[in-house]
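Input.
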Amino acid sequence: MHVRLLLPVAGVCVVAALVGACGSTASTVGEASSADTQPLVRPAGTSGVDTEPPSSSPKDGAGVTVDAVAAYDEREVRFRQPVAGFALAGTLTIPAGSGPFPAVVLISGSGTQDRNETIGTSEPFLDLADGLARRGIVVLRFDDRGAGDSGGEPIELSDATTLDNAQDALAAVEFLADQPEIASGRLGVIGHSEGGWIGPIVANKSDKVAFAVLLAGSGAPGADVLERQVADLARDQGAPPDVVEWQVGFVRELIEVSRTAGDPILAEASMREVLDAAAASAPPGALPADPAAAIDDIIDNYNRPWMKFFIAYDPATDLRALQIPVLAIFAELDLLASAELNVPATQAALRDNPDATVVVLEGLDHLFQPVTGPPDQRFDADTITLIADWIR
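Output.
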């Protein structure tokens, strides 16, 4: 396994808490031959590779770069998810020129996402598809179940879990593998956030997946990730230490209820007891304007099958099982997938994989956008180059 760290020189958060909301997240990168060697400290933007202008190019009204017609072809596609029995819709981006080409399926993060993984003004999957196609890589991105033109129910309105999302991604892999432009043995997955969990699950189920790129995934158990999210987001929003401790305290209790209460009705009652007690002991000024509504929202979130799976799942199991090349990229300041927590866990899980590389990127957030600068940032172009060079 290789470790690369660029240390600084100085979708849809799963956290619902009585105070706070999802905040910005950031990231970091360097290189060493093993987890035990000292990382190379190097400022961002000095990766030693030329950067083309994929995601920073001006956009036309269709949301793609103005010179995209000369760089690649885009096709609207539909494919069947055989387990659930509905169709998924997406966009297949094929580089100009003669193939066959390496190819990837993009797998989105938590929540119901469209094919561009649109979050506010950000469209990271559109940027990835554009940048990778310009570098000779076919990209399939698709609307999640219940989003855009895809069938099925949104995951928030169903009993589906990460494993159901993995079945959707597996159907995408099967579809992409059948396309004539794809080079044999050169098909991989790129998973972002929760997609960083789904990618290894899919790769372990399909011998058609030849490599995996994990973007801001996590190597630590879901319960640990959730607890760290709560603390990091609260601190980022300026919460004083007593409020952070209060939030983490009742979240730990909710996690324990989720783990131990099998019946959803009993779990709801226990969670309400936890949250009523938390509200009664809240530090001054910590409660929202409508605590009762906040409590109901938290219970709805934590008592869902998706969240119960998230809390119970340990991604190390699937990471250890991977026998393909892996590029795992984290962000030093990411508030949703803490590098401090997840990099060591991922390194440990991939320790016996000689083709695994762990990278932490400087100055970027959970969406791999610069933390500083204008609000309408795009996916970092250097990161796209890093991914494309690794794949090629």
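The first helix runs from residue 68 to 71.
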